[in-house]
Amino acid sequence: MLTIVSVGLAAVTLQSIGTIRPDANCMAFAPTGNQLAVGHGDMTLRIYGAGLKLERTLRQEGRAFALQSVAYNPKGGSIAGGAENGRITIWNLSNNTQFSLTGHSRAVNNLSFNKAGTRLMSTSDDDTVRIWDLNTRQTVLTIRGNGVNLYGAEFTSDGTKVVVGTLGKGMSIYNASNGQLIRTFGGHYGGAQDASANAAYTRAVSAGRDKRLAVWDLKTNNRISYLSGHEDYVMYVRYSPNGKWFASSSSDATVILWNASTLKQEAKLTGMSWIGSRLAWNASSTMLATINEYNLVRVYQVK
Questions:
Q1: What is the pTM assigned to this prediction?
Q2: Residue 107: CB partners within 8 Å, gap ≥ 6?
Q3: Rg of the Cα trace of the chain?
Q4: Residue closest to 143 by CA, chosen among 173, 115, 184
Q5: What's the CATH architecture for 6-302?
Q6: pLDDT tens for residues 174-185?
């Protein structure tokens, strides 16, 4: 199924290059190329290749649960999926084997590998973030929210810090080695649903329940600006790998593409998921994957 539409407010255009079957919960691009993995409501993980054609279907061993998060290992060769029951499955794409990581008691809402591909970080609705050693398959660090509600934790590009959204303290940054809280940023009424730092670790953006995004200077720890454009909770935000853009999604069923330098809107998509579209960039920052109101994955080319 191929649908071509173009949406743009300035020099950049988002052009839809295709859609993928319904019941999508989460997705991630491969570390190279444009292969896209999608967690579906039928409890499968499906991998789509050129032209968004289905290449393979991965299933969980034993009792299966719907996947709520997915991430490719940046070194290639494996992919992780976090399920609604708290279990994480790691699939080896070379030999078709898999193993599980258990420890969370509720759904895993986000996954993030370190750059070396040796550790995996999981954020759960049980208000914890865990860092796993993939060689020993054990938890090496647990960050407990203690009521602040942790969302969307990701490693910084050098793997030394954890950037996470919290409802209690806004965007927060932790030490990835010892779990020590480095700083909280606040800045939102009701807290932050998500946060993302650029690869250079010079700026970060937090997604607020106050309908705004906040852009932060990570050298001075000062807020650069608030950005308005959504009409409800901002649920997700993700920097592009090249740092030129970031995308945000809201429970108002929109996705906005922002220019990371000018902080201006470049494009706005409507008809997106009413619970906030998941967002995924390909490695070259030329494609953005979203989920629309019918739970179809829609992939856009950034031109």
A1: 0.93
A2: 68, 82, 83, 84, 85, 86, 124, 125
A3: 18
A4: 173
A5: 7 Propeller (2.130)
A6: 999 999 999 999
